[in-house]
Amino acid sequence: MRPTARGEVDGRASGRTAIEAIGLGKRYRRRWALRDCTFRLPAGRICALVGPNGAGKSTLLSLASGLTRPSEGSVRVYGTAPGTAAGRPVLAHLAQDRPLYPALTVAETLRLGRALNPGRWSGRCAERIVRDGRIPLDARVATLSGGRRTRLALALAFAKRPELLLLDEPLAGLDPLVRHRIAALLLAEAAAHGTTVVLSSDLLAELDGVCDYLLVLGGGRVRLAGEVDDVIGAHALVMGSHRGAGLPPEVAAHPVVEAQLSGRRFTAVVRRNGPVAAGPWETAEPSLEELLLAYLRAPDAPELIAPSAEPVSAPLRRRPGNKPGIPGMPRNGPPRNGPPRPGALPNGRADPPRGAEGTRHDHHSGKGAAA
Ligand SMILES: Nc1ncnc2c1ncn2[C@@H]1O[C@H](COP(=O)(O)OP(=O)(O)OP(=O)(O)O)[C@@H](O)[C@H]1O
């Protein structure tokens, strides 16, 4: 099960908007790094920002943090323009290069954080994160391992008490154990403070169980956006054998995101427009990694923007051929994994990270049960 609720008081229950981008674009000389980017990120989510190299992920994070100004369109963070005096305090941005001063010690770095963030700094939060990582306070930043440096940078970011935390590749270059620890830290801190997190990553398998919202960029545009459960639930993974040259017509009756045919076997990710008919194939829910890989391999697959990801202040302009929303979900209806469920953990999260509970593939034998 995915991470879901984080308490009645946080953004998820409030229906607030953390980021709203409308027609957002950034051009460097003649080349567009991001184009016509329109989406809404509801508050309180941990959002995976995914896309191939050069898709515009870092550019989007820089625009949202106010480090870069748009060439066209607009982006607002909790209703304010990023980079302004009003917008600055609500967010923290951890860039790819983890901007820390290598000559300072850990203690000096924390003191600098306090000095730069008067009135907002939580020394207790920073020290707890550093202590949990067993980082010596007298160690110089230059001598820290990549994992410890990331932990220190996250300590600085969370101690600012931001409402929105933008993380550019926070898990890159870390070994699997450290990645797991950093992901757990992220989940715990974000849950404790109701922080909205956007994290870009190429580590698709690691995102499962960490993120509950999805924003996929491709060709400088938004290709998928919505609650992870809803986006996954709108698709089916179909595997089996085929007789003719292509996919069985019952499978091809659904919009095909990506299909691989090998001999008489096929594997296809389809966007369900109803139950997948029975046949000599198995139908399952794709994992997040399978779904993302399918979209990354198929750059021309039509976009899918869930109702919760549609901006409230401007209608979504759709490209020809792209159908709105998610089948079976009312427009502007509540997210399927919306408010806290009974049995939520004390920190407000209903479930532990997915990695802890094993596989989630439900295999059905062509009974159309994925519908
Ligand atoms: N300062 C810049 N000047 C010129 N071009 C830039 C600049 N920053 C980014 N670009 C270009 O914009 C495009 C998007 O870059 P961006 O770094 O946002 O992509 P990304 O999805 O984060 O890529 P990666 O996964 O490789 O980090 C790329 O083609 C990149 O070369």
TrEMBL record:
Pfam families hit by this protein: ABC_tran
Compositional bias per record (Basic residues), positions renumbered to this chain: 361-371
Coiled-coil annotated residue ranges, if any: none
Record's keyword annotation contains DNA repair: no
Biased composition (Basic and acidic residues): 351-360
Keyword Nucleotide-binding belongs to the record: yes
Alphabetical list of InterPro entries matching this protein: AAA+_ATPase, ABC_transporter-like_ATP-bd, ABC_Transporter_VariousFunc, P-loop_NTPase
PANTHER family: ABC TRANSPORTER ATP-BINDING PROTEIN ALBC-RELATED
Name under which the protein is recorded: ABC transporter ATP-binding protein
Gene source species: Streptomyces auratus AGR0001
